[in-house]
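User: I'm writing a short report section on ligand binding and want a predicted complex to refer to. Could you take this sequence and magnesium ion and write out the structure as tokens? A short remark afterwards would be nice.
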Amino acid sequence: MSDLSTPITYLPGVGPQRAKTLETELGITTFRQLLYYFPYKHIDRSRLYYIHELTADMPFVQIKGEILSYEEEGVGHKQRLIAHFTDGHGLIDLVWFQATTFKWIKKNYPAGKLFIVFGRPAVFNGRINIAHPDIDPADTIQLGSLGLQPYYSTTEKMKRRGVNSRSLQRFIATLFQRIDLSLLPETLPPDIISRLSLVSLSQSLHDLHFPSSADALRRATYRQKFEELFFIQLGILRYTRQRQAEVKGYTFSRVGNLFNTFYAQHLPFSLTEAQKRVIREMRHDMGSGRQMNRLLQGDVGSGKTLVALMTILIALDNGFQACLMAPTEILAEQHFATFSQMLGQMPIRVELLTGAVKGKKKRADILGGVARGDVHILIGTHAVIQENVVFHRLGLAVIDEQHRFGVAQRAQLWKKSDIPPHMLVMTATPIPRTLAMTLYGDLDVSVIDQLPPGRKPIETRHFWQERTQSLYQGIRAEINKGRQVYIVYPLISESEKMDLQDLDNGYEEYCQAFPDLKISKVHGRMKSAEKDAEMERFVRGETQILVATTVIEVGVNVPNASVMVIMNAERFGLAQLHQLRGRVGRGADQSYCILVTKYNLSSETKQRIQIMCDTTDGFEIAEADLRFRGPGDLEGTQQSGMAFDLHVANIARDGQLVQLARDIANEILDNDPAQQLPQYKPMWAHLRELSRDNINWSNIS
Ligand code: ADP
Ligand code: MG
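Assistant: Sure. The structure tokens for the complex follow:
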């Protein structure tokens, strides 16, 4: 048996040229990597279908019959060749779109000859057709011998160098002759294997490539998915437990005067049940003697600020200071205003520290107060974690809108005292549970799943960009009612000239359409002071329309704004649209979100816009987003500092399996906390190997 670390060049049939291609294109250099290069699909070529059995949701099918006649339709890029095909049980159209190939097709697939046609059925104009099918003469194909064929992804470059899916299939078949899979050590413990009726590692590796049946493929896939998700969870949970054992936390045993006084006398409204629940959860954490590490998720407008404020009061009641960090100066100032107002009647000193707080004396005064402990709550931007800020006794750090705060910045807060402060991270970007379990698996998660009463759901409408007049009318009507309006343009990167041009043109257009109104313009390339001044004008109601890029996305609260117009909405992702929409609907009035797009939209974009029009539920939107984009792109994923390699599992689709993997990992950690039990030894060894290869646990917040 060959060692799995053997370089791929030693595999018969590969050779130095192809080995180079495999390395540069797929990163495959060893037998092991080739073994783990799984096909992205299998196609059942053992079975023939009848045309009358076909439906548009079938993946791939084979039918056997003859072409009756050809027909060409359309002109220009709509040109297509249609073959009317029958198997004696029904009729179907085969369609090609590349005009240059039409002649070749007609010559090679003459009418009247028996063929096997292979492809994916689709519905067009109410009829089923197959576009660009594979066609073979019926007498050259032996059906029974084909079975489930693996298909491997390849790149254009590979194909040009003669390495295609078929070649990979051949290489792997050769690999199976060279290695004895049964000698491969099992990675999962025997009790888990038997309890979940999993196939062995070697069996699953074989069957993922060359399954003998659909059932064998299903079982192999299940085992591999479980394995991938399980080791991620095992790693996260082991790390979390270890940290909990080593890191102590301050014990906040008292819910004292400040909290109770505020609750009884100054709370401007009654808390929602969800707010009460999450405050209880945090009280419990902070009283446990362990360091709290909690992620608070709540849709925009769900009232996270108030929850933060009351949690902070618990810290103060126990003789500690607290800080609240926001990603932008505007947000920090807003929080400062809210806190100052709500706590105005109480003996609490709140200070604001941002880059905009100028004057040596003023800063020295704040810093001195923080160091002595007379500043109880420090609110700010990342300025609050800079080196020169020394707290007397920091007990709780709250981070708002977490996705703008990197892991490194969070870690810096930890260093502010011997015992790290309790951490509360708040985010309005809802993360589906299964993803949170993986990305933030070491954080406890609280969810505010309820909006304060009396809110009218925001009405969302879709406009084509040509219909400017009715859009202007709508805007005018709201402004006549005394409301304010946001107009947002996409700015993918701050250096995109074209986008800025759009914004400038848009601003000009609105100035012309509403000559009697005052209009602000804000984008990320403006100087920070200039930008803030312009924002402030809008916040104070001096301007009625704010034309902006997504700089307004996070947190800004202007309750009087009732319309959010999003231009070129097709260019935004779902999560971002939802965030933007959350800027309105903060007062009691009916608010509107207008998604303006061009006329020609891809079907995926249409679905995205439709979802936005159909629901305001952030979690529903997040789930949809995950389905559309996959977890890799999701906001926050990058900053999570967590790299994990999923070959087969998919966090969006395998949610239940994530939960199962987590439960079992927890169970094992309960049973074998010292990592000593003989039946788990190979599993721990495998985890260590994986951590070395691709998961850097120390990076996780
Ligand atoms: P977010 O979760 O988006 O940060 P905020 O904390 O800014 O939401 O709250 C949005 C608005 O709802 C604020 O004006 C706040 O005062 C108000 N609010 C918060 N909690 C309640 C409640 N229980 N009842 C009524 N209004 C509330
Ligand atoms: Mg907020």
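A remark for your report: Residues 632-643, 695-701 have pLDDT under 50 and may be disordered. The longest strand covers residues 61-73.
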